[in-house]
């Protein structure tokens, strides 16, 4: 006799997550409704999946409804739920709403505030970034990322003076910038790269491969290096571009490309947030190949495929 097994909340969450990764928001929401229709009690992880799917579309009305639903089901929103909501607002350019909702949190948490900080960078909102950074200095005093992001934002807007002041403040408070390593497993062995890595004897090969890839994406996609991502002083733009292409995640990706056949997914982890240039370049590198490139940075997972990233450029 065939036994009918009905899916539990974990299976639903898995299904909804898969839709979210694929950007199929409507499908994710319809599964959510179907699950409720089957009298399955949702849990906090289920809401992370469905809110995450929602955040990819910037569907504010749905996200707000989900927040209400959660309360109805006796679940208090956690930091990750708030992060999804912030992302949803940010995607729609409503940073005001995002900030308001964060200020309403009874126990502020650094993760959603970091998401807002990232959104300020994307929307070039320096004034709000200052407020978000000030909050993060309090919530996570050891974290260098708000200092770095704010300093880069000032620099990108041509305010070098303010940019330097933020770096000075970081030094005065003895906040250490982590080395920003990227890691990749190749043939079961772990390789770690810092920016402008010198340790390995195969760096020449990596740089040669990256030169080739850079030429390809420039020609095929009109890639333009984002020089605002270079925090160091160089006298020429050419030197800046060269340094951008020594960023640790680019080195790790190239090492993965050199050692695995086309079609293999590359998985890189990075302990800092990716810069905007690495994000754009990786999207383009994933174009016209059958390769997926996955990068887990300090902020989230990014899955690059066919010239797009699963984060939808919010990171
Ligand atoms: Zn970078
Ligand atoms: Zn991304």
What does this structure look like?
There is one protein chain. The protein has 315 residues and is an alpha+beta fold. The chain has two domains: 9-172, Alpha Horseshoe (Serine Threonine Protein Phosphatase 5, Tetratricopeptide repeat); 181-309, no CATH class. The protein contains 14 helices and six strands. The chain has helices at 9-22, 25-37, 44-55, 60-72, 79-91, 95-103, 110-122, 126-139, 145-156, 160-172, 203-221, 237-244, 248-259, 276-285, and strands at 182-186, 189-193, 266-270, 293-296, 301-305, 308-309. It has a six-stranded mixed β-sheet, covered by helices on one side. Helix 1 packs antiparallel against helix 2. One zinc ion binds at residues 229, 247, 274-275, 277-278. One zinc ion binds next to loops.
């Amino acid at each position: 006799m065939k036994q009918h097994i009905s899916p539990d909340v974990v299976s639903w969450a898995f299904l909804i997550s898969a839709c979210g990764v694929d950007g199929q928001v409507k499908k994710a929401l319809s599964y959510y409704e179907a699950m409720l229709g089957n009298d399955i009690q949702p849990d906090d992880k289920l809401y992370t999946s469905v809110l995450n799917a929602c955040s990819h579309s910037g569907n504010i009305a749905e996200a707000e409804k989900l927040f209400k639903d959660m309360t109805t089901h006796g679940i208090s929103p956690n930091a990750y739920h708030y992060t999804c909501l912030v992302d949803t607002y940010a995607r729609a350019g409503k940073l005001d709403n995002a900030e308001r909702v964060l200020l309403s949190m009874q126990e502020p948490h650094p993760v959603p505030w970091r998401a807002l900080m990232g959104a300020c960078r994307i929307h070039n909102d320096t004034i709000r970034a200052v407020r978000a950074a000030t909050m993060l200095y309090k919530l996570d005093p050891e974290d260098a990322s708000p200092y770095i992001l704010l300093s880069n934002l000032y620099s990108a807007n041509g305010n070098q003076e303010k940019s330097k002041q933020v770096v000075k403040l970081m030094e005065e408070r003895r906040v250490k910038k982590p080395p920003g390593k990227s890691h990749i497993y190749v043939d079961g062995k772990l390789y770690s790269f810092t920016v402008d890595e010198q340790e390995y004897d195969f760096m020449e090969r990596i740089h040669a491969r990256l030169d080739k890839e850079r030429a390809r994406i420039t020609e095929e996609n009109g890639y333009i290096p984002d020089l605002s991502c270079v925090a160091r002083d160089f006298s020429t733009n050419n030197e800046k571009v060269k340094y951008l292409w020594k960023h640790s995640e680019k080195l790790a990706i190239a090492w993965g490309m050199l050692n695995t056949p086309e079609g293999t997914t590359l998985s890189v982890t990075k302990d800092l947030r990716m810069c905007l240039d690495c994000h754009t370049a990786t999207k383009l590198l994933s174009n016209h190949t059958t390769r997926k490139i996955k990068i887990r940075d300090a902020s989230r997972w990014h899955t690059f495929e066919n010239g797009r990233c699963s984060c939808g450029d919010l990171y």
